[in-house]
Amino acid sequence: MFKTPLIAAVGAALALALSAAPASAQSTTVPNDSTTRTESDVASGTVRGETVVPGRIGGGRQEENRSRQARPGRPSRGPTPEENRIAAQAVATGLGNSCQVTEALLLGARPEGGNVYEAVCATGPGYIFSATTPPNAADCVDLAGAGAMAREKDPAAEVGLQCTLPANQNAVAVIGGYAREAGVTCQVDAGLAIAVNRYEVGCAGADGYWVERQENGWAKIPCWSLKIEGQTCRFSTEEESNAIWATALTGTNASGCAVQQVRQVGVDAQRLAVYELKCAAGDGWLARLDIAGQAKRVQACSDPLTAGVAGGCQLTTQATQETAPTE
User: Fold this and answer.
1) What span, in angstroms and rounded, lies between the C-alpha atoms of 244 and 258?
2) Which residues lie across from 305 on neighbouring strands?
3) Phi, psi of 212 (to 5 degrees)
4) Which residues pair with 327 in a beta bridge?
5) CB distance 182 to 220 below 8 Å
6) Cβ distance 56 to 63 under 8 Å?
7) Phi, psi dihedral angles at 41 (to 5 degrees)
8) 189: closest CA among 214, 167, 172?
9) Where are the domains of the chain?
10) How many other CB atoms are there within 10 angstroms of residue 187's CB atom?
11) What is the pTM of this model?
12) Cα separation of 25 and 38, whole Å?
C-alpha cells in the first residue's frame, strides 16, 4: 500500500487541523442559519444528521439548502389534499366503486400496510377507503347506522371508525334518495341504516317505512305493518302509524273509526289481508285490505258473523268482556 505525494499532503494537512482543534467542540454560527454546528461536526462532514459530499466541508449552497430541509424535529411535508383525493379515487376505481371523490382525508395506515382515507363523493354516501391488499371500502351511512344501533344497546359501546367530514354527515339526504327510488313520496326527515341494504325512513308528520335494496330494485314496507309484526320503527309514532287507516277506511261503514290498535288476523280466500281494528270509541272492525292498502270490505265486531272469522275480534271492549274468565 502506498500514497501519492498529493494524497499524503492532504492527509497531513487534515491531521494537523484536527490536532490543532481544542479538546472540547466549539460552536460556530453558520451564515443564514439560526442553528449552530460544532467544529467537530464540520470536520467530520456531518451536518445535522446528513452526510455531505467529502471534500466540501461547507456543503455549498445546494447542500446547505438540503440540510435545512432535513433537520431533525421538523416534520416532513404530508400529502396535499389533492394528492389524498387522487389516492382515494384510485382505490374507488380499483374497487369498481362509482364514487367520484371530491374531497379526501388521510386517516392513517393499516398495521398490515396501506393508507386509509375518508372520501366525500359527488353524489350518494361517502366512504372510508383502505388501500390495502386487497383494497376495501365502508359506506359512511352504513357505519353511522351500525354505530347508532350499538349505542342504543350500550351508550358506552366502542363503535369503531366513523366518518367525520362535514359533507359526509348526510345520511338523511342519502336515505331520502333511496326512499324516492323505492316509491316513498313523503317528506323524509329522518333516516338510519339498520341492516345491510336496509334503511328506516322517517316521514314528517306521517307513517314511515323500511326500504330494502333488492336485486331487481327497491322494496318498501310501511311502519304500521311492521309494528303489527312486532318490529320497531324509531321515527314513527303510534298516532302517525294509526293515521293511515283514515285513508284506508274512507267510503266504508268504518270511516268514523279513530283507530287506536291494530291486529293482523291473516289472509282470506281472495288474498286480501285481514286486520282487526280497535276504535277510540271502544267498538271495533275487521277490515280486508287490497295490495294498495285500501279497505275492500269491513265487518263490525258486533256482527255475530264476525265470531266465525279466525276466532273473532280480540281487541275490542266487547270481545274482552265476552272472553274474560268468570269467577
Assistant:
1) 10
2) none
3) -135, 130
4) none
5) yes
6) yes
7) -60, -50
8) 172
9) 5-69, 81-153, 170-239, 251-323
10) 11
11) 0.69
12) 6
9-20 in b/e form (b: 16+ CB < 10 A) is eeeeeeeeeeee
Provide the pLDDT for residue 73.
58
The C-alpha atoms of residue 47 and residue 9 are separated, in whole angstroms, by 25
Looking only at Cα atoms, what is the longest distance across the chain? 129
Mean pLDDT of residues grouped by 10 in the chain (327 residues)? 37 34 35 36 29 29 43 70 97 97 96 95 97 96 96 94 97 97 96 97 97 95 91 94 92 93 88 92 92 89 85 71 41
Please state, in angstroms and rounded to a whole number, the distance separating the CA atoms of residues 159 and 200: 20
Burial of 143 (0-12, 13-18, 19+ CB in 10 A): buried
**CB-CB contact of 101 with 91 (8 Å):** no
- State the Cα–Cα distance between residues 168 and 164, nearest whole angstrom: 7
**Could you tell me which of 279, 274, 280, 316 has the C-alpha nearest to residue 296?**
274
Give the pLDDT confidence score for residue 317 in this predicted structure.
59
Nearest to 248 by CA among 219, 283, 218, 285: 285
What DSSP letter does each residue of 221-266 carry, written as one string?
EEHHHHHHTT---TT--HHHHHTHHHHHTTTSTTTT--EEEEEEEE
Residue 316 CA neighbour count, 13 Å, CB half: 25
- Which alpha helices (H) appear in the chain, and where do they start and end? 5-20, 39-44, 60-69, 81-95, 140-153, 171-181, 223-228, 238-242, 244-248, 317-323
